[in-house]
Description:
Number of helices: 12
Order of helices and strands: HEHEHHHEEHEHEHEHHEHH
Radius of gyration: 18 Å
CATH architecture: 3-Layer(aba) Sandwich
Structural class: alpha/beta
Helix content: 25-40%
Number of domains: 1
Bound molecules: adenosine-5'-triphosphate, magnesium ion
Number of strands: 8
Low-confidence stretches: 1-11, 18-24
CATH topology: Rossmann fold
Shape: globular
Distance between the termini: 18 Å
Amino acid sequence: MEIASKILYNRICIACLLIDTNQQHGEVAEIAQIISFVSGKGGVGKSSLSSAVACALADHGKKVLLADMDIGLKSLETLFGIGDSVVYNWGDILADRCTLPAAIHHTRGVDLLPAPLRPDGALKPDRFRRMLADCAPQYDFILLDAPSGLGDNIELSVCAATAAVIVATPDRISADAAGECARELAGRAVPTVRLAVNRFSARDVRRGYALNLDEMIDLCAARLIGVVPEDSDFSRCACNGLPFAHTQAFQAAGRIAGRILGEEIPLKHLEKFGNN
Ligand SMILES: Nc1ncnc2c1ncn2[C@@H]1O[C@H](COP(=O)(O)OP(=O)(O)OP(=O)(O)O)[C@@H](O)[C@H]1O
Ligand SMILES: [Mg+2]
């Protein structure tokens, strides 16, 4: 296992999301790649990273739809500071109460689709897949910010995903949950699965407070797509709906976006990440 993880770790520079366009999940990905940001454990940074990666892909000139899948929590509305202006959400589209353009918010180069306010009988995988099929021709990427947890919690978020990024923080509970998540995604036949380690601090690894990247990869059993540092400025901006493009965490999200686009981007300062 350790040798396998070393090989995976050493292959970070080619750990991009090379998605075979013929390998489509749920048969809805006519054009867009549909990438779900998932985790077993809550509060690990799915909303923060999916937002940052969406903005970074938009900065690369890509057309990006970012859907909030966390029913009732409005995380992305807060993150993008658009809460007051939201009228419709994707639940309204599924229930035929509005059209796609009416529900979309154009913000920081991204098309944001807010989450329904409460669970509803109309929120079914077949309808959701149909909605994504209607959206797919207009986008390069559709990113889905999943709720935490497994099973029914992530059914809608992964039913059409061509890829998933498991977000985990470098602690045993989060890593074990990420491993469970990877097993569930395999069971659901999500074609491509990658790991993003968030809130990483080499200092904490050296002190023995946090797991190192090899341990994370071993426990999650997925290839690494990026490492995002602990960054209180990013958190301050995200929690207050402020732009975060200047932060270190956003730079790291930008490297994840580059790898999604197929660029070979090595880990920055590999030796400082606590694995030696
Ligand atoms: N790299 C980071 N550095 C510092 N704080 C971070 C970082 N990433 C996320 N956070 C903070 O962690 C908290 C949880 O982040 P976020 O809401 O993105 O997690 P989540 O996985 O979407 O949570 P949930 O499971 O509830 O949907 C927020 O306060 C956020 O600002
Ligand atoms: Mg969230």
